[in-house]
Write a structure and sequence with these properties.
This protein is an alpha/beta fold. Helix content is 14%, strand content 31%. It has one domain: Metallo-dependent phosphatases (Purple Acid Phosphatase, chain A, domain 2). It contains 3 helices and 12 strands, in the order βαβαβαβββββββββ.
């Protein structure tokens, strides 16, 4: 299974065509969005590229290949107007080799996680990283739209052998090979 992960779109369309291109190039099976789809939030100023209708149509174009997790900025109205499900706080993808737990990160994160030998993938922080703490691996793809790190917009690719975080120019930022 090949999965592309993005997080924290916040209604900004700017980098979404690149994500669609990479999804096809990498022959991904799923696109996972880790929350904060439309609303830009009160801490951010309006920026060029804010277009929630474009974002909605982009997400809808993935049909059954799309998994969306509810973020702290996503509302019940967002769920009602989207023609795809936005699931609640925690999701799970079981692959051949591991279980990937999916969340936005404002509830479950490296400070609030009680499983062992697990992969927790979450957004919310807008900062990309791959951390191993005790028996768990915590992965954050960063934000595709409003990065809070000097590497700019980022996304995550998973292929059952590796987790790879790329910047928007396809440079590898972090890589973790999965122990078989």
């Amino acid at each position: 299974m090949k999965i592309l992960f993005i997080s924290d779109i916040h209604g900004i369309k700017t980098n979404l065509p690149k994500i669609k291109e990479r999804f096809k190039e990498l022959e991904c099976d799923k696109l996972v969005v880790l929350g904060d789809l439309y609303y830009i939030g009160p801490r951010n100023t309006m920026i060029d590229g804010y277009d929630i209708n474009y974002v909605k149509e982009f997400l809808e174009s993935f049909n059954d290949k799309l998994i969306c997790i509810k973020g702290n900025c996503d509302s019940e109205v967002d769920k009602m107007v989207s023609n795809f499900p936005i699931v609640s706080e925690l999701g799970l993808i079981s692959t051949i080799n591991e279980d990937l737990y999916l969340t936005h990160g404002h509830i479950y994160n490296e400070s609030n996680w009680n499983k062992t030998n697990s992969y927790l993938i979450y957004g919310h922080l807008h900062i990309p990283f791959i951390k191993e703490i005790e028996t768990n691996t915590y992965i954050n793809p960063g934000s595709i739209s409003l990065p809070k790190s000097d590497v700019g917009p980022t996304y995550l690719y998973y292929n059952e052998e590796d987790f790879i975080i790329y910047d928007i120019n396809d440079n590898i930022i972090f890589k973790k090979t999965i122990k078989m």
